[in-house]
Amino acid sequence: MKSVDAHLAHILATVRPLAPLELDLEQALGTTLAEEVSSPVPLPPFDNSAMDGYAVRACDVVDVPVTLPVIDDVAAGSSELRAVGPGHAVRIMTGAPLPAGADAVVPVEWTNGGTVSVTIDRAAVAGNAIRRAGEDVQAGEVVLKPGTVIGPAQLGIIAGVGRRRVLVRPRPRVVVLSTGAELVEPGLPLGPGQIWDSNSVTLTAAVRESGAEGFRAATVGDDPAAFLDQLDAQLVRADAIVTSGGVSMGAYEPVKEALTPLGTVDFEKVAMQPGMPQGFGVVGEDQVPIFALPGNPVSSFVSFMLFVRPALAKMRGLPAGPPETLSAQVAEPLRSPAGRRSFLRGVLSSDGTVSPVRGQGSHQLAALASANALIVVPEDVTEVPSGAVVEVIRL
Ligand code: AMP
Ligand code: MG
Fold first, then answer.
1. Is 182 in the pocket of ligand 1 (CB under 6 A)?
2. How far is residue 6 CA from its own chain's centroid?
3. Is residue 376 pLDDT above 90, yes or no?
4. Rounded CA gap, 221 and 312, in Å?
5. Residue 373's pLDDT band (boundaries 50, 70, 90)?
6. How many CA atoms, within 13 angstroms, populate the side-chain half-sphere of residue 325?
7. What distance in angstroms lies between residue 370's CA and the mean position of ligand 1's atoms?
8. Ligand 1 pocket residue status of 183, Cβ below 6 Å
């Protein structure tokens, strides 16, 4: 059997970061920056007022109270400004350019708020309530580096330096495809022997949660030819394909039967529980990576977390490796098969202890939904006593 680590290493050596492309700001959320973004101008571009108040010469407001004539009114966006001469005040709003001659802003709260003349009750030192040009960013300064994931604040600074388009690695487009003659679309009635297709829903959501775009394709039955047709149709819009079901040892394993003859997808046993049967390889002219995950709901989800999620990180141009773990103390004894790494579903508490949930079968989706962590038990460990320290993967 192949080890979990060897399987992930093989996957990460195969998948490539997506090629950068230019996107409009509107499309860039969640993508990875592929260029240095710098500002063509200083930010702020000009000295401006940090408050609503009065622009003055600080030397005129040393002895207070003092009453000064208000010679002008400047709002944000004003461009025609009268200079502030000795003994003058200009009413000024937040963000408005500082008129020549002024070296301080007196907040309106320190005054009587006058519009013809203003009485100032408190002295202001030079520089008071002024935002200097270049205080945030100097002209030419780099504001974002390649490899940064673009979130709301990053989009903000890209717009803030005046850019409309930006070079990014896009979010990978991932098609999720469930196989199984027994599957019925949720919302439709079940016939005898049927179950609702939950895997494609889970996996598509997991794709989206991994920063990629998930497309849930129509389920196919257990016919390899129908599977290949659907795969062909979906490949045009896919940077990666995730399938569920049809990869184990039984009869009616359409994914395995359809992909094995291609010679580019390997079906192997990986030393883990759940999720032992795994398929991985590339398909189509563009060598699109395909993850053929087992059908049991817990197996496909755990496989996604261990193998697909890191691969998507690599495709996004981000650092990629095994899921992060943290240490916790088990509240109950655990059992695990020899020679396989177990990923038991558990509840991690804020006190740093973790308890396995009831129902560790690979079909027990409700138990998975009640868990918030996977407890990792190494290959060579078969029993873990209560109170021992284990590694857990947060879900
Ligand atoms: P398979 O890997 O196709 O042999 O499926 C293994 C088990 O997982 C069977 O009990 C299937 O009914 C179940 N299963 C397969 N696909 C799905 C799915 N999309 N949603 C829920 N259960 C599934
Ligand atoms: Mg099946």
1. yes
2. 26
3. yes
4. 27
5. very high
6. 15
7. 20
8. yes
Three-state secondary-structure class, residue 27 = helix
pLDDT digits (tens, 9 = 90+) for 113-160: 999 999 999 999 999 999 999 999 999 999 999 999 999 999 999 999
Task: Tell me if 199 CB under 6 Å of ligand 1.
Answer: yes
pLDDT in tens, 12-41: 999 999 999 999 999 999 999 999 999 999
Cα 296 to middle of ligand 2, angstroms: 9
The two beta strands, 373-377 and 389-394, are antiparallel
Cα 182 to middle of ligand 2, angstroms: 8
- C-beta separation of 273 from 340 below 8 A: yes
**Cβ–Cβ under 8 Å, residues 25 and 167:** no
- Cβ count within 10 A of residue 288: 21
Distance CA 165, CA 168 (A): 9
- Ligand with an atom nearest the CA of residue 223: 2
Q: What is the CA radius of gyration of the chain?
A: 31
Query: What does DSSP assign to residue 125?
Result: -
Q: Give the Å distance between the CA of 65 and the centre of ligand 2.
A: 85
